Amino acid sequence: MPKVLAIDNELCVGCERCALACAYRFFKSSNPRRGAIYVVKLEPGVDTPVYCGQCGTCVEVCPPEALSRDPKTGIVKVDLKKCDGCGICVGVCPYGVIHVDPIEKKAVKCDYCGFCVKYCPQTVLRLIDAEEAALWRQKDFAKAITAAPELARKLWFKPPFK
Amino acid sequence: MWLLERRTIYLIPPHTLLEDVKRIFKGLSINIKEVKIEKSSWRILGAKNGVLVKAALSFTIKQINELMIFGETSISELEVYSEGNENFNKMLKRRIEIGLLRAAGV
Amino acid sequence: MPRGYLGKILRINLTAGKWKEESVPEDWMKKYLGGSGFAARILYDELPLGIDGLSPENKLIFMTGPLTGTFFPNSGRWAAFGKSPLTTAIWGEAHSGGIWGPELKYAGFDGIIVEGKAEKPVYLWIHDGKVEIKDAKHIWGKDVFDTDAIIKEELGDETVKSIYIGPAGEKLVRLACIMDNLYRAAGRCGLGAVMGSKNLKAIACRGGKDIEIVDPEKFMKAVDIILDKMKDNAITGNALPTYGTNVLTNIINAAGAWPVYNFQQGWHPEAWKDSGEMLRDTILVKNRGCRFCWIRCARYSAIKSGPYAGVVGEGPEYETVWAFGGQCGIFRLDAIQAANMLCNKYGIDTISTGNIIGWAMELYDRGIITDADTEGIPLTFGNHEAMVEFTRRIALREGKLGDILAEGWLKAAEKIGKGSERLIMGVKGLGLPAYEPRGVWGHALSYATSIRGGCHLRAYMIAPEILGVPKKMDPLTAEGKAEMLKFFQEYFAMIDSALVCKFVSFALTPDDFASALTPLTGFKFTGEELLKIGERVWNLERMIQCREGVGRKDDTLPDRATKEPAPVGPAKGKTVPLELMLDEHYKLRGWDIKTGIPTPAKLRELGLDKEAKDAAKLL
Fold it and tell me: Which residues of chain A are within 8 Å of residue B69 when distances are taken between CB atoms?
């Protein structure tokens, strides 16, 4: 079973440390804008990371065919030699989770490397078997179309001290 | 050996304090000769130019009355002994204060 | 080549409508580190003496430090500095969490110096090294929540990060603060009024610049160790994310240090109703964190029933809970959170507002102010509706009493008279925060000697005296307090210069900071050297106030703390022996014992030669 990135977004506090870690992993950068994970903060109280789900829409439209799907893992990767930073993938991505780095001028997207996982202080991110990930994603989708955050109650899960 | 410093420390894990004291010794070029770790205590023996310095810590894990919310936590008793002269001891004492300095502000 | 720093400060003159970029001297980085250190250097060199805090001659400084915006934990903060229009301390300083600090660096600047006064309301738009002064006529008068939304819409970008003042700052309320991301505040010293006096409504930033690291691998390795230490710690890894800062209410009350009814006593049987445990069981929705936070101590609450149903947002914090809770004799979290939301909405400091309302309640209790002054509202301890109403009135300068209290304690006492001044629970005109001085003597000394006035954040003596960190000290003795205080003041001054959140210091020592700052900046720091920087910054801040006449006579405590024995709790029957602790503290600091002014010898030792000459003239 390939490992995929999944989240429990009810635990997210919007601290952006995942984006900061990702920027470091790609470019040894300290600016979270350069990372491949995007933290959305909306009032009231919505915090969640958003990242590539490997849907493959970008693969279809890339003119130099720099985007391709790895047959073993299913992960869509950027071939840095072929990418020319044209940005067509950015306009086509349904989730807004691919961008062209302004300095390197190449497309940047999540490839499930998992570097961000240990840098989340709330254990929101997890690199798990695809089967388990499916359960988290069902929950994500259900939450996205139902209860407003102020009606949900998700406390920091560590129980009170014994 | 002179008792240079004795203090009670709440909450901070004893193994963290061990690393702190090791760093304090290193900062003053005190060579660490022996580190002994037991179930509820540890001690370090070091020497600089033949002058011995010893740090010993013993701890219990229990609930502190005034700090109920932390549940069972560590209460450590740290003692530092030194054979050094006045200058050396003054430096060591200051290094201990800085090396263990934890604070916050709520 | 600046490392960790952007190496640039933006100087903007609002009168002329012009700005320029200035380089940060490398000398400053080594001597003052950044943050408070840079601000102290600038204010010492440039702040004219004897000016009114609300005059265009005041300088409003925004500053970050080398660690801000980096992978170091809790690096998402910033601070504001200037002459305070509220206190007699001269030095005004306020730090804030939120999201703006790193964005200022990503936009190209380590800090901003704002001078003069704009002819009409403006806001600044700083993006990738470019600066625009934009018309703010359409947002002047809008509350904090609307301001944030309007700026984002106007600039066409949801990812723009701004700081702003609310109506309180615009109306020059001396308790006004500067807000970040709707709920975070650079709260104290009235710096929101300074921003308002310059007709500056907001500063918006967005940036793609990077912060250079000299040795990225070594830096990340040091940070990995630091992150583990913080997770392993009972406070930063467990108590704070679970219960928030309000975990302290029950602890401080049990220790007899929770001030109730304007500091008349330090303990109350109903404190548990305002506690962090109660918060978690009732109104808490989730926790939250500032940008890049590793602790996540913030709360997000929703009031679902009762007279305050519908109040949703971040908070309340320990200090806020105390200010609108114990200080005013109120033991219900919903009223406290409602007052908190009003403070966020209008941009006013919660600690100061709660403290001053509690003071007014005691005055009302004693008949010094009456129904005629309150326009019929019974301003009694425990009346939560009056408390919430007066929060609004002070923020908007409404009603006679609201307008008087908006001037701060000292000016209000001048107007009210009748011995009201003696009941002010503040130092240097800054109202005391949530710890009863009679219950914790080291912390009381911290209140008296803190540069900006009655403040708990310049040396948190609660840590040793109640929490037993870094060593357990008896709160009711004077022994060893002056020495420990000196270490704390210097450690915190250093953290305020490196500019990250102080809470990391529950788990980290100065050596931990050195292990990260060295590979970041390329300068070889040790814990000892960092404390020396802290000492230098502290002395420089002190000289800024001493040269304008502040000294031992201002390092005081209210009479209640030194003359009225505590009525209940562990400190029952005791008062604070301030004078002897002050003597010891000045001696340890190398300051003149009679006047509390730093001696020229001490200043020269710290490499502050110009300041040493100035001190010689004063002594």
Answer: 160-161
Look up tokens 């990242």; give the residue: A51
**Half-sphere exposure for C41 (CA within 13 Å, toward CB):** 23
Q: C511 and C528 in contact (C-beta within 8 Å)?
A: no
Q: What is the pTM of this model?
A: 0.96
Torsional class of B11: left (φ above 0), alpha (ψ -120 to 50), beta (otherwise): left
- Would you say how long chain B is, in residues? 106
- The class that CATH gives domain C8-206 is alpha beta
Among C459, C466, C502, beta carbon nearest to B66: C466
C598/A152 Cα distance (integer angstroms): 56
Mean pLDDT for A71-93 is 96
SS3 at position C212: coil
Three-state DSSP at C309 gives coil
pLDDT, tens digit, for every residue of B11-38? Answer: 999 999 999 999 999 999 999 999 999 9
ipTM of this complex prediction, to 2 decimal places: 0.94
**Residue B1 confidence (pLDDT) above 70:** yes
Q: How far is residue A86 from each of residues A52, A89, A102, B55, C207, measured CA to CA in Å?
A: 19, 8, 11, 63, 22
Mind listing the pLDDT tens digit for each residue in C341-352? 999 999 999 999
Q: Which residues contact C360 (CB under 8 A, 6 or more apart)?
A: C369, C379, C390, C401, C405
3-state secondary structure of C545: helix
User: Does C210 lie at the interface with A, CB-CB under 8 angstroms?
Assistant: yes
Neighbours of chain B (3+ CB pairs under 8 A): A, C
Over the stretch C466-486, which tens digit does the pLDDT of each residue have? 999 999 999 999 999 999 999
Q: What is the CATH number of domain C437-618?
A: 1.10.599.10
- Half-sphere exposure for C353 (CA within 13 Å, toward CB): 35
* Percent of chain C whose pLDDT exceeds 70: 100
Q: What angle do CA C434, C437, C438 make, to 5 degrees?
A: 130
- Chains in contact with C, where contact requires at least 3 CB pairs less than 8 Å apart: A, B
The CATH-assigned architecture of domain A52-109 is 2-Layer Sandwich (3.30)
Q: What is the amino acid identity at position C465?
A: E
How far CA A42 is from CA of A45, C100, C291, C384, C466, in Å, comes to 6, 16, 14, 31, 38
E-state strands within B1-106: 2-10, 31-38, 41-48, 51-63, 72-82
Q: Are B69 and C251 an interchain contact pair (Cβ–Cβ within 8 Å)?
A: yes
User: Does the beta-carbon distance from C460 to B97 stay under 8 Å?
Assistant: no
Interface contact flag, C469 B70, Cβ < 8 Å: no
Domains in chain B, CATH or no CATH each = 2-99 (3.30.310)
Strand order in the sheet with C111-115: C18-23, C8-13, C111-115, C60-63, C78-83, C91-96
**CATH class (in words) of the domain with range C244-424:** mainly alpha
C367-394 per-position pLDDT tens digit: 999 999 999 999 999 999 999 999 999 9
Structural domain boundaries in chain A: 52-109
Q: Could you give the dihedral angle defined by the CA atoms of residues C455, C460, C466 and C471, in that order, rounded to the nearest 10 degrees?
A: -160
Give the minimum alpha-carbon distance from B73 to chain C in angstroms, rounded to a whole number: 8
User: Among residues C320, C336, C333, which one has the least CA distance to residue C388?
Assistant: C336
Is residue B14 classed as helix, strand or coil in its secondary structure? helix
Domain boundaries, chain C: 8-206, 244-424, 437-618
**Closest among C323, C320, C244 to C289, alpha carbons compared:** C244
Answer yes or no: is pLDDT of B106 > 70: no
Number of H helices and E strands in chain B, helices first, is: 2, 5
Does the pLDDT of residue B73 top 80, yes or no? yes
